[in-house]
Amino acid sequence: MKRTVLFDTETTGLDPATGDRVIEIAALELIGDLPTGKAYHVLIDPERDIPEEASRVHGFTLADLEGKPKFAEIADGFLEFIGNDDLIAHNASFDFGFINAELGRVGKPPLDPARKIDTLELARERFPGMPNSLDALCRRYGIDLSERTTHNALLDCKLLADVYVELMGGRQHGLGLGGEDGDDAPVARYTGPKTRTPVLIVPDETTLADHTAFIEKMPDPVWLMDSKTRS
């Protein structure tokens, strides 16, 4: 089944072109659009200050990132985790822009935009003219937001994974039914008893009398025709 990677970043600001940097990356592996449990998560020393307005959004201060690795130290691990698979993000151009800016700083090629799957664009197609932030989509799909007090990348990934499943058609979308990958793909199977004993329901006299009274009120009821007439 198809592998994709859903990811999110937190940053020092809104524009890598003005020197803003990535401070957190989280990613989840999906197989057949469902999380496998494999995750990647890292906090990063941005090598610069974190403005107060950014800290109010994600909750991180520079003190929280002291001693954390720099992007150059985690780049290979991140690229190994995402492989060559499609990459899912909410407002994906934002995350791609920041990751590509960081990759450029360490002399690595950028992520191919053809790999991009943007859940914001998917949501806008499905719900045109409606709020389509991650919070709004979680509320629309009844996904628990109680832990989301700040924009934590790992929690946002977990929420977005649930949103993505719903955008793609719900939990049944990812059930393996012997698809194109053959016998090795997960398959939903019936695991109950091999045989079943039918239960015969016999109506009592009162029920039969009520039924007879009901059909007698109907014009030409088929239940009162003999077999020759019905044929």
At the fourth level of CATH, the homologous superfamily is Ribonuclease H-like superfamily/Ribonuclease H
Number of helices: 8
Low-confidence stretches: 173-196
Largest sheet: 5 strands, mixed
Oligomer: single chain
**Mean pLDDT, all residues:** 85
| Share in helix | 25-40%
CATH architecture: 2-Layer Sandwich
Strand content: 15-25%
Query: H/E series, N to C?
Result: EEEHHEHEHHHHH
Structural class: alpha/beta
**Would you state the CATH class?**
Alpha Beta
Descriptors:
single chain, 231 residues, alpha/beta
Protein architecture, described:
The chain is of the alpha/beta class and 231 residues long. It has one domain: 2-Layer Sandwich (Nucleotidyltransferase, domain 5). It is 34% helix and 16% strand. It has eight helices and five strands. A five-stranded mixed β-sheet has the order 3-2-1-4-5, sandwiched between helices. Strand 4, helix 3 and strand 5 form a beta-alpha-beta unit. Helix 4 crosses helix 6. The longest helix has 15 residues. It is elongated, with a radius of gyration of 28 Å. It starts with a strand and ends with a helix. About 10% of the residues have low confidence.
Summarize the structure.
This protein is an alpha/beta fold. It is 34% helix and 16% strand.
